[in-house]
Design goal:
The structure is a single chain. The chain is α+β, with helices and mostly antiparallel strands and 206 residues long. The chain is built from 4 helices and 12 strands. Strand 10 and strand 11 form a beta hairpin. The radius of gyration is 18 Å and the shape is globular.
Length: 206
């Protein structure tokens, strides 16, 4: 009987789009299961624990699941993060420095895994309903690994669309990211997820 109910639920959620009444955890799972690629504009606000002036930035994100992502901050200071499926490249143009990490270590228990990782979220995160606020349904993801650098991540959904992420790191810093002009399953150029360090920059960790 339990198997039949589970099968019925799977079929129903596959046929009918998510509605506002769906739980945020269900919305997260369905969003990931139905999203192979993603492109969106984002605005980011970083609030430090000490109450210093919030830092604002904006840019464009593109994702091809699993493991490929491009997070490009355009304003006020350009910065680029590219995941090609094997490595994560972090390019700071002001420092003229590139940091390279294996994709497994860089994504596994990090906030990026919630969007660019595989569908086995419960392997790395504990998920919990976080209620409704500001017109969004929120799910809270707590990393199971103690060295992820984050205490928790909250994701806000409106119906089937991801609208916001709220990151709380181990230093008491909060980062709020809001998404706009989000496209699901667009065709993305393959070179969007390739990175070659510019000549003359320092490369760390390759």
């Amino acid at each position: 009987m339990k198997f039949a109910r589970k099968t019925l639920l799977t079929v129903a959620t596959a046929i009918f789009p998510l509605c506002a009444e769906a739980g945020a955890i269900d919305q997260l799972h369905q969003f990931l299961q139905s999203t192979r690629t993603l492109k969106a504009d984002f605005a980011q606000l970083v609030v430090a624990k000490g109450g210093r002036k919030p830092q604002q930035s904006s840019g464009v994100v593109a994702i091809s699941r699993p493991g490929k992502l491009r997070w490009e901050i355009r304003k006020p200071s350009p910065q680029l993060i590219v995941g090609d499926g094997e490595k994560i490249w972090i390019y700071d143009t002001e420092l003229q420095q590139v940091t390279v990490r294996p994709v497994g270590k860089a994504i596994g228990g990090s906030p990026a895994a919630l969007l660019a990782g595989k569908n086995d979220l419960e392997k790395n995160f504990t998920l919990a309903e976080a209620g409704s606020a500001e017109g969004l349904n929120w799910v809270e993801a707590t990393p199971k690994s103690g060295d992820s650098g984050f205490e928790k991540v909250r994701l806000g959904f409106a119906a089937a669309d991801l609208k916001a992420m709220e990151l709380h790191d181990s230093f008491g810093q909060t980062t709020l990211i809001t998404f706009s002009a989000l496209e699901r399953n667009p065709a993305l150029p393959a070179n969007a997820f390739k990175f070659t360090p510019p000549a003359g920059v320092d490369v760390i960790g390759e």
